[in-house]
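Researcher: I'd like a structural prediction for the single chain below. Treat it as a standalone chain; there are no partners to consider.
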Amino acid sequence: MYSTSYLLFQSLTAVALGDALGFPIQHDTRSNPFDEPVNQMVDHQATGVPAGTWSDDTSMSIAALVSLTFGYNLYDLMMRYSQWYHLGDYTPFNRAYDVDETTKEAIKRFESGVEPILCGGTLDSDNNNTALKRLMPLAFFILTKNRQYTFDDATVKMIHDYTAITNRTPKTFIGSGILTNVIIRLIQNPNKYAMLRAVKEALDYYRSKEEFAAQVPFFEQLEESHFLRQSSTKIKPSSDVIATLNTVFWCLMNSEQYNVAVSKAVNLGSDADTIGSITSMLASLLFAPVTFPENWLSKLQGRNQIKIAVSVALLSDYF
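Model: Treating it as a single chain, here is the predicted structure.
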């Protein structure tokens, strides 16, 4: 297991790299994306921001890390998300980019006086990857808090409450549980077998809970090797929580290097920034230690914000 300081900085940088690489080409609809793959940072034409600019995935992760530096406080976290949305905190250019509707509605509820844990959406449209974007800091927080980590009721409640500020559906709770457990197990043991065991560990937990058991079959393909090894043409990426996890784990299982996994993730199109960001973060742990491509890293905007957020977190008692 590598040091927390190394892995935390590497992971947050990886979140930003995958986000910035995918942000300009999200919703890409090329019929054969791997024929002309995007493998370098490019400008975002719609917003006019330069290459290497990250979007909500990184901003929400930085805000979460800063909040958790002072302890687990969902009110504080929602305050920071509100400041990000309205004032451009935790962004390279003082402007919030690519804020999804689930997040907007959650912030509106919070600002109207709703308790943070009740701010998340409960509609079918809220079965998305909004909560997945910001789980990495929580995983490090949980592991630091509990060196004898187990995926138990207390851990799951913390993950679900953290998820609930934006998403309050059974599927998003399960998705967050799976991803958080995978992050922690990869920090402890960086290999694909440990990753797949972590998926099974989480699903076994949810199978044992009456309120979640009926939703588990939607995720069971993540335990199947033939699903994870199928052709890329069978993978259907989107912002849906299940489709996001399907795509992320497919990219990881079919790659042997960090940059290969990330390139696959963003070039599959659709929600390329979020899928690229999550894949990049997990790949940085799975293939640790990694050397980030210089042509990506050199163009990454806001690198000092990442360094400062991680440095302050590591000075606290929570990381």
